[in-house]
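=== Structure Prediction Worksheet ===
Name of assembly: unnamed complex
Input type: mixed (protein and possibly other molecules)
Chain count: two
Listed entries:
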Amino acid sequence: MKSGGLWQRLDRFGRNLVPLAVTLALVILGAVPLPVAGYASVVPLFSLCAVFFWAIYRPHLLPPWLVFCIGLTQDALAGTPFGLNAIMLLLVYGMVANQRRFFLGKPFTLVWWGFMLITLIAIVVAWLLASIAFGVIIRPGPATFQFLLTLALYPLAALLLSGAQRLLPQPA
Amino acid sequence: MASKIQKPGVMAKLATFRGLAQRFAFVSLFLLAFALMMLGKAENVVVERARAGIADIAAPILDALSRPVATVSDFITQTGEMMHLREENMRLREENGRLRAWHGVATHLAAENEALRNLLNYVPPARGGFISARVVGDGGGPFVRSALINSGARDGVAKGLAALNEEGLVGRVTDVGQRSARILLLTDFNSKIPVMLETSRDRAILAGDNSAQPQLSFLPPNSRPKAGERVVTSGHGGLLPAGLPVGVVLGMRDGQMRVQPFVNWDRLEYIRIVDFGPIPAPEASAADAPVIIERPALKPAPQVVAPVAPSAVASSTGDVADSEDEDGVPPPAETLPSLPPTSGGPRQ
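=== Predicted Assembly ===
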């Protein structure tokens, strides 16, 4: 399978970049200001949805170091302590990688349930880390709302991500 | 290939080794992220450059993406405004009448101020330039309140400059890239701004707590701020010039004296970064002009952007005003048309 012309290899290379490109696009979309009251403080974690999805279905196309870079990008755009989102996304990636067999080929509601648990842990850890970094107890209200919003939007994100997944070559 | 099949033991060892290496790499990345967080907290230059660099790359993309969003939002707002055109017109006529009276007062006070400054040989501080920028990113999430703008060092934006919009003080510049910069909003946890109450001249620190209404801390013990009193920057600490409009006192909420900022945080679109030039340290000004410090009502605050409460000025300069006015004397402070608290206040 390794053979093929230059174009074929380029095509394959381009398609393999899809998970990274889609995740980065979601990071950038999450930073676009919307004139909705209070949106900036509860903006859903689209990037977390994407990392969760690719960690289950195509982990080799989104290795941990790329997840790390995506997290840093999000930190730079959102103004959060540099490294906070990287830790959060790596945590999600690590938890999913451990339970990958559990998620593969399961009905969507079950995956959604798993997403809820993993996102909950990730947001609580991020909340704790941010509270320690700032030396104050941050009001948990916005973080809770962000969790609920992310959870509610996961089906939509999953729909988009499975569309992107169809562009990918079948795993060997 | 063939040799590997012949030695399955080597394959297994290789797989174990790979697994271990992957785990090690994963843990290292975790630790690296932690280390970056610590370095970022210590304001490490490399970390600051890295985040500014990433923001620089993304800023043009965000700029392009945020424009259609702003257009659609403007269209919706304008459609809503069309429906209330008549009432708006009535309100503006009424306000225009009041403002005309105020214009007379302001012209008179400006002339009087000029005359007094000449008497004192007062050297006005240099007027600063400003840079207009668009907010291109603000998805800070639940932990921070900040905004990314599409101007940076190449446009003259520098760390620590004041960020204003047409309503009032927005915050301060904290990170600067080549073509992007980050504004720490005054509602953020890390924002501490020296302010004063405009009528009582009491000093305090406006401390953000990530809620929409920051709190006043370090108020003098005998200070009783009234709800609706204007809050402006005091210029202490040398970070911001004095007199920039910040907000109005809301009153005690959950045991904290809260301030409602003038800025509408949900529609932060254009921002002015204002460079007021070097701001004199408060120690130096105190040593140069001790008399001025003793009489706070006369203190010539540099660049008073917000109009000073007329009663305070009138009471302190009353006798001079009497001797200077020939005709066209504006009404005394007591009979001035009162500005409704909402006219300069936050949008409802």
